[in-house]
Amino acid sequence: MTDTALTYQSVDDTVLDTLKPPNARYWMTVMLLFGGMLLGAGCWLYQILVGIGVGGQNNPVHWGTYLINFVFWVGIAHSGTLISAVLHLFRAKWRNPIARAAETMTVFAVCTAGLFPFIHLGRVWMVFYMLPFPNQRTLWPNFQSPLMFDVVAISTYLTVSSLFWYTGMLPDLAVIRDRATGVRRKIFTVLSLGWTGEFEQWRHYARGYLFFAALATPLVISVHSVVSWDFALGVVPGWHTTIFAPYFVAGAIHSGLAMVLTLMIPLRKLFHYEQIITMRVLEMVAKTIVFTGLIVGFAYGTEIFIAWYSHNIVEMETFHWRMFGDYATEYWIMVICNAMIPLLFLFKKVRTRIKWLLVISVFVNIGMWFERFVIIVGSVAHDFLPYAWGLYAPTLVEFGIMFGSFCLFFFLFVLFVKHLPSVSMTEIKETLHEG
């Protein structure tokens, strides 16, 4: 099939072919990911039974990989809203082929992120003390705490993202329903909510989708700004700065776009989406990564400049220690992977090669994880008082839980792409007249 042969019928056939009964290799992949989830769940259960001390948290580093992974997964979730909502409002048509997968990634990443505050609590059954209702200890949540901001922001983001994701799928679910038989047809009849494709339904659908896009756009800014306040509101060197909100938002979009490439490139190959997810689409994502990478690099430089310009000896020492101290390796991995390697996308030969797109996107994901490590651990480990300085290293239990979280995310995504349309047939058809 050539580009010129792409029609409404061929789009439907290409996407619906991906929903055919999977082969043994698919189920083997699912089982391996499920095994990784069980490993992570087992490590969490071990921590609950033995105590939070099985992790590497210590005095002064009370926040370890659990908070690092929380911020990382919330960041991954942001690209879905950027691609689906913000670029939809700007009528950027190149986002149509990858919008569905990005929205799905958002929902699953937020679900994964939401587990880590529970894991970090240790005694997870005490979580209800964070909820605003009377209890036997007459405790009441402190709504001035950024940790309470997180509860509200993440739950709101998950709700809006899920509604946005499901609303966009309605016409496609109806297409599957019309071609399905037996029990499968009954399931998709329920899921499609009586969609018939009448004019009034399309009119309300277009308005509703636009409304959700407008509602979700401020969340791109607000949610990760709220997450940044977990740190910026603390009087800790390296944290207490006004740059954190835009810094975190740019970093979140940077990591999310990289994860889009990491997921969509194998999906494009396995599902034969080459005619739908064209090289131009991947190239536009790469160009956007260059833009967000420049913002992140500028933020790194601004942090160092502010520390020097302020002549605050504690701030200066903190950033000097980050660059040349015990965590210097992690710091330079962060800088190289996030701010320097993405600049290779400036060269057309690099950003139009599938191999380089995939490799660089993986490096960016690694760099963004280390960015959260440097921010969270690098400040509390080297605080105001020299006698209270300390170091932190994750334990096998923490690595097991982190591995389980990645398996959970990919497990949900792998199940999704084989049972629901991973590309929006509706939005692809909208752009067919443009070639």
Blueprint (SSEs and pairs):
Blueprint: H1 8-17, H2 24-50, H3 65-89, H4 96-121, H5 146-179, H6 182-191, H7 199-232, H8 244-270, H9 279-310, H10 313-324, H11 328-340, H12 348-351, H13 354-380, H14 396-419, H15 425-430
Helix pairs in contact: 2-14, 3-4, 3-7, 3-8, 3-13, 4-5, 4-14, 5-6, 5-7, 7-8, 8-9, 8-13, 9-10, 9-11, 10-11, 11-13
Number of domains: 1
Order of helices and strands: HHHHHHHHHHHHHHH
Number of strands: 0
CATH topology: Formate dehydrogenase/DMSO reductase fold
Specify the structural class: mainly alpha
How many strands, what sense, and barrel or not for the largest sheet? none
Distance between the termini: 14 Å
Mean pLDDT: 88
